[in-house]
Structure formats: structure tokens, C-alpha cells
Amino acid sequence: MISWKRITRSPFSLFYKTKVFLVAALLILQDDKRAYKLLLPLYAFIHVPFLHLNIHEDVWGQQGAFNDLLFRSSVLTITGSLCGVLGCAIMMLKIPECWFPGKLDVWGHSHQWWHVLTILGPLLCMASGLDLLSYRLEQVPCA
């Protein structure tokens, strides 16, 4: 059995939860007129398998094929989430254009980076889910 104190009070868990909450809260509260708020529950649904397995399994403390797969899946999901947040931040802050005004009008502007990162993020989350699904279909006898 996994201790809830160990999951919720580990340094990695607290750091990850704090950073994700702060970035998400700042991005959501910044603009009230955007229609993307309707899609936030859909994006949050991507993380349900990741959260479920991390609650019920000890990813960080044990060794074995299943825990290696869970660790890889966790890294893919966290990286995908960070890609989405980074893409949104780059688009809102217009990062390359503010450093090099007028030089990135055709290639390399924030809108292109936003497209790359917001496509890469969900693809990484999907790869994580496919890894978990393939493990379930191949290894678990009652699936």
C-alpha cells in the first residue's frame, strides 16, 4: 500500500504541483475574453491515466519493468504538459519578436513556435498513454 503522505509531500510532487498551479492560474486569469477556457477540461482529461497510475503505483521508489514504464510515461506526460505551457507563454509574451524586432517576420516568430509546441505537447501525452495501453494489452492477462 502506498502512503498518501509520501505521495503528496515528496519534494518532486510539491514542486511540480506548485509550478503547474501557478503557471495555469496566471495564464487562465490573464485574459477573460478568450474562448480556449472551454477546452481546459478536455486538456485536463489527458492527464487522468497519468494521475491514476501515479496515485496507485510507486513510480519513484521501486525497480522493475512496470515501474520503468510508469517512469517513462510520467516523464512523457510532464514534458508534454510543459510544452503546452511553454507554447502558450511564448505566444502571449511574443518572446522572439521582443528580442529581435523586425527580423523574425517570416521564420521563427512566436506563432510558429506556439504551433510546434502545442502540437508536440499533446503528442507526447498521447505517446505516454499508448505506452501504458500497450503494456496493459500485452502484459496483463485479464485485459
From TrEMBL:
InterPro entries: AdipoR/HlyIII-related. It is found in: Membrane. GO terms for cellular component: membrane. It comes from the Eukaryota. Keywords: Membrane, Metal-binding, Transmembrane, Transmembrane helix, Zinc. The chain crosses the membrane at residues 12-29, 35-53, 74-93, 113-133. It is a multi-pass membrane protein. GO terms for molecular function: metal ion binding; signaling receptor activity. Zn(2+) binds at residues 111, 115. Belongs to the ADIPOR family. This is Uncharacterized protein. It comes from Octactis speculum.
